[in-house]
Design brief:
single chain; alpha/beta; Thrombin, subunit H; ten-stranded mixed β-sheet; seven-stranded antiparallel β-sheet; about 35% helix
Length: about 425
């Protein structure tokens, strides 16, 4: 039986405290205001019979005499085919002007997939972005962030990945988005013709911070249901720094003892519980997570990227509008390179990166006024071609086309024995009609 409490003891920001028994952490409550409005809250902390709840909507207008009713269940997302093509807030309410969502109620924030039901990831997610497909392959069920800073085109990169992949469902979790960023996701889905397979859970910068915490849980709960039903799901989370900052804001309001740079000590677990939703379900579908982590001050040692690096399986480092080959890493690429791609993939990619690293040193020597050798001149030409053909995010090539272009670039800049690639691969793939 639902208990009604007609007294709120304390209010601080989006937090309210009531005296109650027999409630659980995360339990949902209904706050009925005197003006007839109803807002929802969930249990955040229990100390004896003092229960602290966080209100999801704007807490303006709540008074100590309002009634609080505990609903005996946690926050729920609504799952069903009616979700596809819809845009919802962090509390699961439609923000696209459409009707209420009808379907199965799913509790959010549940445990991750059972490891016993996961299979080893061996399928490549093809993005047609050479810096990903050639050098740091994205693998189905991988969890990988884009490390960047404010102002970089990370959301554009997310949209490009969504457009190029063959996922059955794309779930977008937007946190702290400006209206322009929010509208860009809508416009992209409409122009790409993918709106009918896309679901968006959006927290805008003007929304209450507490709703930001719900967005990834809402999105991933629905993603998991799609995956269990056999769908291949791509989940895009942006920006996890906004999510972590919302956790920090609420922790400060609750007078929690801060840890590194003011973030709570639970930050690692808070991030991991979301990222660990990624996986391939045996005999069913999969969830692949690509997120964005903006690094304050471009500091990779900041608590958010630092903790994220321990949880995820690599990262794409977006710098100066390009994916930096030296800061990026995919720890699962060995599962697909040379196994589901061509035999020359691994050797070619390694040689291209090695020679690009050498070309960076040649640029430094040139900048310091040293005399350039013939080898330095070759490296400088190669460096320019590599950035134009491989690092430019506007380039749209399949894996095989990108590998062929890599060989052609080598042939335009070097002799076969200068690449360091074994002779059997050179004999098979070198474009002999091109000479240095």
């Amino acid at each position: 039986m639902k208990k009604v409490h007609d007294r709120i003891n304390n209010m601080r920001g989006n937090l309210i405290t009531v005296t109650a028994d027999d409630v659980g952490l995360g339990e949902l409550a209904e706050v009925r205001l005197k003006d007839g409005r109803t807002v929802y809250a969930s249990v955040l902390r229990i100390e004896g019979n003092q229960v602290t709840l966080q209100v999801f909507q704007d807490s303006r207008g709540i008074s100590t005499g309002d009634r609080v009713t505990f609903l005996k269940h946690k926050m729920q997302a609504t799952f069903g085919d009616a979700l596809l093509g819809r845009r919802l807030s962090g509390s699961g309410k439609p923000i696209d002007g459409g009707p209420e969502i009808l379907g199965e109620k799913v509790e959010i924030g549940g445990p991750s997939l059972n490891p016993a039901r996961r299979t080893i990831p061996r399928e490549m997610v093809r993005t047609n972005i050479p810096m990903i497909d050639v050098f740091n392959c994205l693998v189905k069920s991988q969890k990988i962030p884009i490390f960047s800073i404010a102002g970089e085109p990370y959301n554009k990169l997310l949209m490009r990945i969504a457009n190029q992949t063959d996922a059955d469902v794309v779930v977008i979790a937007g946190m702290g988005l400006t209206f322009t960023e929010y509208q860009a996701f809508i416009d992209n889905a409409e122009q790409a013709g993918s709106m009918n397979k896309t679901v968006m859970f959006i927290h805008r910068a003007t929304d209450p911070a507490v709703e930001c915490l719900l967005v990834p849980d809402m999105a991933l709960a629905c993603a998991e249901k799609y995956a269990v039903s056999g769908k291949t799901v791509l989940a895009l989370l942006t920006d996890m720094t906004s999510f972590a900052d919302s956790i920090k804001e609420i922790a400060i309001t609750m007078d929690q003892v801060p840890s590194n740079r003011g973030y709570p000590g639970s930050l690692y677990s808070d991030l991991a519980s979301r990222y660990e939703k990624a996986g391939v379900i045996e005999g069913s579908g999969s969830i692949t997570i690509v997120s964005v982590t903006t690094m304050p001050g471009d500091d990779v040692t900041h608590p958010i990227p630092d903790n994220t690096g321990y949880i995820t399986e690599g990262q794409f480092y977006l710098h100066n509008g390009m994916i930096d080959p030296f800061g990026s890493l995919s720890r699962l690429k060995q599962q697909v390179i040379g196994k589901v791609t061509r035999e020359d993939h691994g050797d070619l990619a390694n040689s291209m990166i090695r020679l690009y690293a050498e070309s960076k040193k040649a640029r430094e020597r040139q900048g310091m006024g040293f005399k350039m050798s013939q080898w330095d001149e070759k490296l400088l030409v190669y460096s320019q071609l590599f950035e134009e053909r491989m690092m430019n995010l506007e380039v749209n090539l399949s894996v095989d086309e990108a590998l062929d272009l890599g060989w052609q670039t080598f042939a335009e800049c070097f002799l076969p024995d200068e690449t360091g690639i074994k002779k059997s691969l050179v004999d098979k793939f070198w474009p002999h009609e091109v000479t240095v």
